[in-house]
Write a structure and sequence with these properties.
Length: 203
């Protein structure tokens, strides 16, 4: 198979601009509500120019999700079987909370896709994501069996970390409406969740 021709500097700049614009448009409007015209306008490109790089809205969305999923899986990949169990799990929670803080649009895009039944990434959820979660669940189960953390269902522990961290991105408007628009919730959330998981898991 011939190697793909490397992009020129201008092509890479335009591709990055399209994917950044698509992230903004998809995260705000969902897949159904987004249009190629909206993405082109956000990217500062003409529609024909955009379609030179991506043949359809579906192709743009697939490229955005592919870029996102690598970022999304990295924090769990970093959980080390040889590390201190409590520090590893709390560290994973910290990384997920940092993702929610630093990549809120990506979190909302992912949530929108899941709410719609994950039609475009279901295969990846059932393979790459499931394989990784199964692998790390075995590690957590082994820590529990060895008495190094309190007995816990590893899958529901991971689900809890997802829900408690991504909430701050996916429900950002609600969080700020309750706490005050200028209040940064992340330092308090970090302390609270660290205390919660430490007390729950310490044997």
């Amino acid at each position: 198979m011939p190697k793909a021709t490397p992009q020129t500097r201008i092509q890479k700049k335009n591709t990055d601009a399209i994917l950044e614009a698509a992230l903004e448009v998809f995260s705000a409007n969902g897949f159904r509500g987004a249009t190629v015209d909206m993405i082109a306008n956000e990217a500062g490109l003409s529609k024909p120019n955009l379609l030179y790089y991506f043949a359809s809205k579906e192709a743009i969305h697939a490229a955005v999700l592919e870029r996102l999923l690598g970022t999304w899986l990295d924090p769990l990949r970093a959980l080390e079987p040889a590390g201190d169990p409590l520090l590893e799990i709390v560290g994973y929670m910290h990384r997920k909370l940092d993702l929610a803080r630093d990549y809120p649009r990506e979190s909302r895009l992912f949530a929108n896709e899941i709410v719609q039944g994950a039609p475009r990434i279901l295969t990846i959820l059932q393979t790459d994501l499931k394989d990784l979660v199964d692998e790390k669940a075995k590690v957590i189960a082994a820590w529990s069996a060895a008495g190094r953390i309190t007995p816990v269902d590893p899958y529901h522990l991971i689900f809890s970390i997802w829900s408690m961290t991504q909430h701050y991105a996916d429900f950002d408007v609600q969080v700020h409406a309750i706490l005050g628009g200028d209040h940064d919730p992340y330092p308090d959330a970090r302390r609270y969740l660290e205390t919660l998981f430490t007390r729950m898991l310490r044997p």
